[in-house]
Amino acid sequence: MTKCNRLIDAGRRQFLRGGMMATAGAAVTTLAGTQEAKAQAALARVDYPASRLGNIGELTENEPLDVSYPDDDSPGVLLKLGHAVEGGAGPDGDIVGFSVLCPHKGWYLGYNADDRTFNCPGHYSRFDAEAGGQQVWGHATSNLPQFNLRVDDDGEIYAEGVDELIFGRLSNTL
Amino acid sequence: MAYKRHIDRLPIIPADAKVQNAVCHYCIVGCGYKAYTWPINRQGGTDPSQNVFGVDLSEQQPQDTEAWYAPSMYNIVKQDGRDVQLVIKPDVNCVVNSGLGSVRGARMAENHPSTVTGTQGHRLTDPLTWRYGSYQQTSWEDAFDLVARVTARVVMDGSEDDLIVSMFDHGGSGGGYENTWGTGKLYFESMKVKNVRIHNRPAYNSEVHATRDMGVGELNNAYEDAELTDTLVAWGCNPLECQTNYFLNHWVPNLQGMTSDKKAELLPDEPQEPAKIIFIDPRRNVSVNAAEQAAGPDNVLHLPINSGTDLALANAIFTHIVEQGWHDQDFIDAHTLREAAEHPAEFPAKGASDAYPGLLTSFEDAVEANRMSLEEAAEICGVPADDIRKAAEWMAEPKEGGARRRMMIGYEKGIIWGNDNYRTNGAIVNISLATRNIGQLGGGCVRMGGHQEGYFRPSEGHVGRPAAYVDQLIIDGKGGVHHIWACNHYRTTLNATEFKRIYNHRTNMVKEAMDSVAGQGRDALVDAIVGAIAEGGLFAVNVDIIQNEMGSQAHVVLPAAQQGEMNLTSMNGERRMRLAEKYMDPPGHAMPDCLIAAGIARHMERVLSETGNSDYAANFQGYDWKNEEDAFRDGYQSAHPDVTYERLRAMGTNGFQEPPQGLDGETIIGTDRLYKDGKFSTDDGLARFMAGPWRGLVTPGKQEESESYTFLINNGRSNLNWQNWFLDQENEFVTDRWPYPFIEMNPEDMAENSIEPGDLVEIFNGNGATQAIAYPTETATRGETFMLFGSPRGTQGNIVSKGVNELVIPVYKQTWADIRKIADVPEAARHISFKSKEFRF
């Protein structure tokens, strides 16, 4: 899938949800309720680097591998879950990657391997590694930013995007 | 897959953005926020000179930074008719929350209506009236005219008792001093409406009559007391979810020992340790787990008592404390009633009347009447006697060297919506009074609260006590006109199955009558409506910000503004009053409630004058308000002249703590704690104790219900969504997590009933039925469940019986029902997590 297609796909999802899409000073409009639709502006997402984060061979099931993406100041992890999940990458569809800064106040999340959740020591929020980073319980107003991963034939794992705003930056790429 | 916004960049707040005071309009804590607005065609930059934070935003910002906001804190809204960009983010300088945002308040921006981003598109923009068999937009004048003509006719043909009113009494959104005054002036001054109820209960009454009767106002301490106390007691409350940043910013630091410096400074003459904490709740809620993380399990005591047995527990603790001599006799002698009250004929089974189900009396009389051994209480409450003893020790045993132990009790809906409200409330206050923990640093016996407060109305004395059971009046066919202000009984009342059935029928009668005279003019319309009312119909006027289920049965719907779309004053749980400023326009033609009330009053005056009732018409004068500040001046400010919008605006998100004590320059001097001087809110200034022994489950029908059904259906709020979801039902982040209400069940109970995680189950009893998705919860006691209330997709109130206590306070918490699976996991819930809500590191 090309980057362009992904953007269209993201836009379509956004449209169907009737949610909000904020971009750099421009606004994208959706149909919602009884309100009139406005002209739809072009989607303007940041350009993400395609960064190699590791190789499948480095991953052990249910053991997070520290990585950073889109740059060194944005810590994250790769996880091999051992079973396919929606959004999972790799031949088994079981590799996921997440930012580990809590989207509430930016505390480092800890991984609990017993129930495969990310947990915030600051204010007790927790996110489900097996459900797209959904906040199981907590104070963040977004689910955990997940990396868009691609795995090539050699098992090299690349990140090529992020699906939510990472804590501590008003643009995912600085 | 979890909902993601796919927003990877936000506009930067420019250095010259307009900054205004905002307060979270959801829960009682009232966290301070700042609202930043700037023109649509501009944005700040990453250079420190180009953004409001003055920092380099091309770098990653650190943990807890002020210089970041989530996509939920951004929107594009109308301000003075123009699109502007809006960020609402927590205020680091507010002493309430110190920059913490809750999962509710941090979505305020996203939960405002926007014609650009499409958020909250369900907000009402115009008055609606039932016309041509459906709802049609109309003008304010047309809507007011119909409301006034029908209301005036029904009241003049009958009496003001034929007008039933449901209205908010609180602060924050859907309330506040301006709006409680506007509505209060209309119904309690211009009229004397007595068939009136509040948003969450079927009568116009206090939730805590007992503490008030004892002379102890229910919001008597400061949030700082939670930082100073030796022992925190959470009684029938769940502060991490329901008063989030009060707990995180004031309780947790004490549990962690982080407030030792403040304790040493303010309380230097006594030994200090990190606080211990006691939870009294049938359910192990997430607050218990968080406290264990913060304080260590040895410093947390959870008493998972049988539902409704709080009174037995409180009386046993009180008894033990007194037997040990841990009470403060000097304080009792000086500041409480010393003569025992005469015992009513039917005491202890009853009080003097239904208005006073317990006895206000002396300390000694209360001790004698309430005597309960630890062993007796253990048997009733279902917890070990040693744990009750330990609770008493943690509450009152003197500290090393003999210093008095400081103890703070916070209580809320587990008590308020529980068994024997009056006596239980009193029994809890007994403990704090006897140990001199009112009006003291580190003390307090307080409601934790729901909404903020913001009550300023003419006397409601004509309503009576006990007040009328309004829902039952409606069910019994009484009343002809129903005015509703920011209430949705379809989701938040008891006996809701029956209420909705009758309400639909009675309001549909009026709709059909209106349909029958289409096109025949106003007089014919009013005649048809009045004719239908005579046959048992009900004409409903619904004032709200959205078209909810009540509105869908109404005949006129009036669009209100909410906080941020008007200037609004309220006070939080430590009586901290702030002005939440208007930073955007209300949608369309929506108006503040106070101005809607004024509009109804003006049209009542006109219609009554036109129909020859000039004397009565004169009652409806005095509403010449151009804006909400006029209503504030006419109401609150008339009693507190120093409290002006200008001064409040300057005092920002910290405001002052009510009541005001005067001025220091332009600064309003507040009151950090009530009763510091030992003078209580009684005629003689002496507090009363409550004699009210345990008398079982007193609500009619509850004991039988508990014996007839398998599961306790405990219920309440969750962290994520606010109240009846009026805005959250259109917030995708919320509905993605809770597409249906959850019901927490023990996994073994689920297995026995062949219920898998996420299965849709029906919860049913003789009162009705509702639905929820099953959420496996290992910590749930067998046979006890917890259901999320107020959901649009499953109303817990459907299965709550009509039984109320003597003071017409509902007992939502005590509901028993059976549960059966009705469907596999619905598609909308297939992706959601069913893992434990408890933090585990």
TrEMBL record, chain A:
One molecular function GO term is: arsenate reductase (azurin) activity
The enzyme's first-digit EC class, named in words, is oxidoreductase
Q: Where is the Rieske domain?
A: 62-158
Q: What's the short name of a Pfam family annotated to this entry?
A: Rieske
Keyword flag Calcium: no
The name of this protein is Arsenate reductase (Azurin) small subunit
Q: Which domain of life is it from?
A: Bacteria
Native species: Paracoccus onubensis
Q: What is its EC number?
A: 1.20.9.1
| NCBIfam families from the UniProt entry | arsenite_ox_S
Q: Which UniProt keywords apply?
A: 2Fe-2S, Iron, Iron-sulfur, Metal-binding, Oxidoreductase
SUPFAM superfamilies listed in its UniProt record: ISP domain
Keyword presence, Metal-binding: yes
From TrEMBL, chain B:
Give GO BP annotations, semicolon-separated: respiratory electron transport chain
Is Acetylation found in the keyword set?
A: no
Q: Which EC main class describes this enzyme?
A: oxidoreductase
Identify the keywords attached in UniProt to this record, alphabetized: Iron, Iron-sulfur, Metal-binding, Oxidoreductase
Q: Does the keyword Ribosomal protein apply?
A: no
Q: Name one GO molecular function term.
A: metal ion binding
Provide the Gene Ontology terms for cellular component: membrane; oxidoreductase complex
Arsenite oxidase subunit AioA/Iodate reductase subunit IdrA 3Fe-4S cluster domain spans which residues? 24-119
Q: What is its EC number?
A: 1.20.9.1
Organism expressing this protein natively: Paracoccus onubensis
- Please name one Pfam family that this protein belongs to: Rieske_3
Tell me the protein's name.
Arsenate reductase (Azurin) large subunit
